[in-house]
């Protein structure tokens, strides 16, 4: 394709592997310089093996935080994230499993507290999406699975973490531009992302009396493994063309939003959504 933004490619399983992508996403925060904004903090990031989650993990580490990540089964990607965090001078553990399972989320919280003693920051980031052209073709199993991963998982993991989070804690939820614009072929995914916006705002009101801030990030098109794992080769090649900037974002361009919201720089922000989306203007 002469107008391709990246080479045509596809992957057969979700949430996808960063190892297989060409070009590889920019997710190592190579140019980022920390300023000790998160010194001695402990952060848990779901879906931290690749893409935005990896960039956030490395960015947090460069700001002085120790990190724990969850991932489904992308062991090579997770190992690379562990190495990048270690290179940034922080400790990191990785726990494989399904955040759509509440027992797993409780086990993750137990392991993180066992390793680090507490949890100061939670990033609910893991998600999946599946293209369906017509609502009549959306199967019950997929509908339930998308909701279980994308929004139930955020409920489960947050519920498991809260007993270990004290005054000064921060929760950051990943939603999407599709929550505001909609998506004709990702109706179930966009619906979960809208639910995350409401979850973020409601939880903020509940937790502010406990000194815990809750915010969200709504990325636009970003070059992550979820893209070739979701779309056809041609769609993947043109991913990002609809953004006003005419390209997909890189995870390294999204991660600073999470760093800001996790830090004291955002001490007067809660219940808010940041929009790194390539220039799309949305309300909310």
Structural notes for this entry:
The protein is of the alpha/beta class. It has one domain (34-274): 3-Layer(aba) Sandwich (Rossmann fold). It has eight helices and seven strands; from the N terminus they run E-H-E-H-E-H-E-H-E-H-H-E-H-H-E. It has helices at residues 51-62, 75-87, 102-116, 140-161, 178-181, 187-207, 233-237, 251-262, and strands at residues 42-46, 66-71, 92-96, 121-124, 170-174, 213-217, 273-274. It has a seven-stranded parallel beta sheet, with helices on both faces. Strand 1, helix 1 (51-62) and strand 2 form a beta-alpha-beta unit. Helix 1 packs parallel to helix 2, helix 3 runs parallel beside helix 4 and helix 4 runs parallel beside helix 6 (187-207). The longest helix has 22 residues, at 140-161. The termini are far apart. 50% of the residues are buried. The model has no long low-confidence stretch (mean pLDDT 96).
Our Rg estimate from Cα atoms comes to 17 Å
- Total number of beta strands: 7
The assigned CATH architecture is 3-Layer(aba) Sandwich
- Class by alpha and beta content: alpha/beta
Short summary:
By secondary structure, the protein is of the alpha/beta class.
Key features of this structure:
284 residues; alpha/beta; Rossmann fold; seven-stranded parallel beta sheet; 11% strand; globular
